[in-house]
Amino acid sequence: MGSTSAQNGTSNGTPSGTPEQGGVGRRDLIKRSAALGLISVPAMGFLSACASGGGGDEKSNKPKGEKTKDNPFGVAKGGKLDVVVFKGGYGDDYAKAWEASFQKKWGVTASHTGTQEITGKLQPRFNAGNPPDIIDDSGAQKIKIDVLNKNGQLLDLAAVLDAPSIDDPSKKVRDTLIPGTLDAGILEGKTVALNYIYTVWGLWYSGKLFKEKGWSEPKTWDDFLAICKDATKQGIGGLAHQGKFPYYINVAIMDLIAKKGGLDAMKAIDNLDPKAFVGSDAAKAAVEAVYEVVEKGYLMPGTNGLTHTESQTRWNQYKAAFITSGSWLENEQLKQTPDDFDMKFMPMPVLPGSAMPYEAIRAGSGEPFIIPSKGANLPEAQEFMRMMLSKEWSSLFAKEANSLTILADGVDPNVKLRPGTQSTVEASKKAGTNTFRFLYTEWYSEMDTEIQNASNELMAKRIQPAEWLKRAQAAVDKAAKTPAAKKNRRD
Known about the structure:
The chain has 491 residues and is an alpha/beta fold. The protein has 20 helices and eleven strands.
């Protein structure tokens, strides 16, 4: 995720800090204690006061640049930038290309870390008041953005979004983006995360396998079940899902809820309605539909116990007809996908009486980039993010990561997309304005986790749909009691 994909990382990193002159000072002692876990996260208010200025000692000797029309944040020649990128489905080659471009233009030296262990490597640095300057905060081990925001650790990105666009200085950066793509990064009225990648979520299949079996893309849930049944008879799993990461099966459940009940059903969940799940006909129909796949034995054998890459690789080996995922899937599976696999994306099939058409898709922005408010190099981080939203850097990303960004018309026509990604472009065109996007995953991370846990139990047949609805509603009711619930609202 963004990517929302998750892998075990191998990169190493350590908290950094600068000892004060004359031995271990009070500030350094606090930072070391925090890194060792001797000071807990709730002490952040005290820590932030001690580590004021976003790097304190480190900032005093850094060069300062003059703010101009072409340099709105005052980037200084000879400066530094600390970049941390989630190395998942999109890899991190794109970030290295960005950093090289940034150094060439500004003379700023970027330190690069690509990892999947975002929380493990960065939480000690946040605790110590010495975070990186810009972070791609994604994957199963991402730091919860709503928690960082609650602790005042994220920069409001309004200045970046209101800065002149690099491609057209007569426009603000925010006016060059695909409408609605900033929504996922807005928490309690402020934009604190830039979800950079234009992502679609749904079902995926092999064009080659479907052609061989004579199957057509199913537009209704009954047609989907019919293919799953036929596949199972032929020794092929109907549906694979990434069992150890139930986020993925929630793509199916939540898409079905939105398409069955329309935008009102989606908004009821995001707005923490007391009948978001229990009492919702759309939610009941959706979870019962997914459970039917389990009950009839249409799941790929063993999928409940597999990681995302393990399930996806078996799907690449034609051991399942369908898999749920987002548009990072193709790039993540490049090495495991046969050359003639012909990866295809499709919208979630519709249930009887659905309010939204088959062509409707969950679409929006994914892969959140954040700038910590205590970063030592805020001007450089802000300019780096502004350059991310240029056509040059957007095209670099498309070339290296085989995915689209939130920049409208942001990819050079000469960049050739792979079959799966091209199919997402075609699906987006067919969907038109029939798109939707849940926001509770960003607004209420604990609620999201509790619903995922319920889905894990459901897919393993340890609970029934009625119990899933109760657990999901309990998660909603719990989130409704938090202070953030008073500020987060969809109209």
